[in-house]
From TrEMBL:
GO terms under cellular component: early endosome; late endosome; lysosomal membrane; membrane raft; neuron projection; trans-Golgi network
Biological processes annotated in GO: amino acid transport; axonogenesis; endocytosis; establishment of localization in cell; lysosome organization; membrane organization; negative regulation of neuron apoptotic process; regulation of intracellular pH
Record-given protein name: Battenin
Membrane topology: Multi-pass membrane protein
Similarity remark: Belongs to the battenin family.
SUPFAM superfamilies registered for this protein in UniProt: MFS general substrate transporter
Subcellular location: Late endosome; Lysosome membrane
Organism annotation: Myripristis murdjan
One Pfam family recorded for the sequence: CLN3
Gene3D superfamilies given in the database record: MFS general substrate transporter like domains
Length: 446
């Protein structure tokens, strides 16, 4: 009996215990990576505006922050509209934070395989730390904007890299990643609001949050249990000669259902499973196959961010006990709670009908658009329920899209497919920001 047989026959089940421990560490590691990756992106939407407002006003007044919001305390600037309008739509801040991410997701999948994962993580951590430092010590508008751009670059590159990284681990880590990214919205909104309202300045608050990039380093380099052949500091081109060993290590981390799928794929003709990096034509072929996933994901995010950045600021109930700014803050917070809940649901329920989720989100957007125009909603409580439901739909679309891409894509194409598909949500967000401008202008001119 060789060593492998003796281990498998061990009644103590030490191998099973070690495997469960490794899976728990990897799930936790991806949860923290998701949290840290999206944290700076979320916080910059609030913190940059706080400092920009202070710079523009020429004083040191600290405003209560909201996620992706502008300050409503001044009320209607022109008093000529039936709506309590801001002079500029909140879509401005959204576009500043999403366009760099979109550019990275559109281009990076075609060349990022040449940069090893270890270097990618170090770059993302550096960009996130630089964003906190730039915005906290900002003395000019351009410095604050540059800080927002750095946060966007870190988040965009991190998302496509960590989604691609999941193919080296058990598929359950996708649930950890999705839950962590959802948690970033809740944690970012509550933590930044709590610290500033407790009396800390935005500058001190952002300096405290430098712990988040440090946590990303710890999660990646110390918490994850990598396969021995994982190309940490080598590019995929250099690693191509070790493809067989890498495949064996990936299979060791799969669950039983994953192994069955792998065995079926191993029966395919050898020429269909050529090793080495994908060619440009192969990548384009993979992209064509991703359209059925990317389109519904993009539509979901277009509808929900059109709601968040084009409509929610106009849904103000003057007779409600919360002010306009407080109502908008709770809209955004409940949305993030819904996203967090549904992005954490992959272990319990899986939804394959992605177009159904997209249709339901579009119905939400149309209903709220009509309600803004005719102002027939009786109370903010109904809007609270709708935005919570909106967040549930958006989070479910995100995690289920990437779960089924991972499940249905061939081994050799999976890493590229996971990275390339990440453009779907960013494209939808960017288009929603552009659409929100004329909508905001139209309603505020009434």
């Amino acid at each position: 009996m060789d060593q492998a047989d003796s281990v498998n026959a061990d009644p103590v089940r030490g191998v099973d215990t070690e495997d469960r421990r490794s899976r728990l560490r990897n799930w936790t590691g991806f949860w923290l990576l998701g949290l840290c990756n999206n944290f700076a992106y979320v916080v910059m939407l609030s913190a940059a505006h706080d400092i920009l407002s202070k710079q523009g006003a020429g004083n040191s007044t600290v405003h209560s922050p909201t996620t992706a919001s502008l300050d409503f305390e001044g009320g209607n600037s022109s008093n000529s509209s039936r709506y309590d309008c801001n002079p500029v739509s909140t879509a401005v801040v959204l576009l500043a934070d999403i366009l760099p991410t979109l550019l990275i997701k559109l281009t990076a999948p075609f060349f990022i395989h040449k940069l090893p994962y270890g270097f990618r993580v170090l770059f993302c951590v550096s960009m996130a730390a630089a964003s906190f430092l730039l915005v906290s010590f900002s003395s000019a508008v351009w410095m604050s904007i540059l800080g927002v751009i750095f946060a966007s670059v870190s988040s965009g590159l991190g998302e496509l890299s960590f989604l691609a990284l999941t193919v080296f681990f058990n598929r359950q880590v996708l649930g950890g990643w999705g839950s962590g990214t959802g948690g970033a919205g809740v944690a970012g909104a509550f933590l930044y609001s709590g610290l500033t309202q407790a009396g800390l300045s935005p500058r001190i608050t952002l300096l405290i949050m430098l712990v988040v990039p440090c946590a990303m380093l710890i999660s990646y380099f110390l918490l994850l249990v990598f396969p021995p052949s994982f190309p940490q500091w080598r590019s995929e081109v250099q690693e191509a000669g070790h493809a067989g060993g890498s495949s064996e290590e990936r299979q060791r981390l799969m669950d039983d259902s994953d192994l069955e799928e792998a065995e079926e794929r191993d029966k395919a003709p050898q020429e269909d499973r050529a090793s080495g990096p994908l060619t440009l034509s192969e990548k384009l072929h993979v992209i064509r196959g991703l359209v059925r996933f990317v389109l519904p994901l993009g539509l979901v995010y277009f509808a929900e961010y059109f709601i968040n950045q084009g409509l929610l600021e106009l849904l103000y109930f003057p007779n409600f006990y919360l002010s306009h700014q407080e109502q908008y803050r709770w809209y955004q917070t409940l949305y993030q709670v819904g996203v967090f809940a549904s992005r954490s649901s992959l272990c319990c329920v899986k939804i394959k009908k992605l177009w159904g989720l997209a249709l339901l989100q579009v119905v939400n957007a149309v209903f709220l658009l009509i309600s803004v125009r005719y102002q027939f909603l009786p109370s903010a409580w109904l809007v609270f329920a709708i935005v919570l439901y909106e967040g549930l739909l958006g989070g479910a679309a995100y995690v289920n899209t990437f779960y089924f891409i991972s499940k249905e894509t061939e081994d050799r194409q999976r890493e590229f497919a996971m990275a390339a598909a990440s453009v779907g949500d960013s494209l939808g967000i960017a288009l929603s920001g552009l659409t929100a401008f004329p909508v905001h202008k139209y309603f505020c001119s009434l």
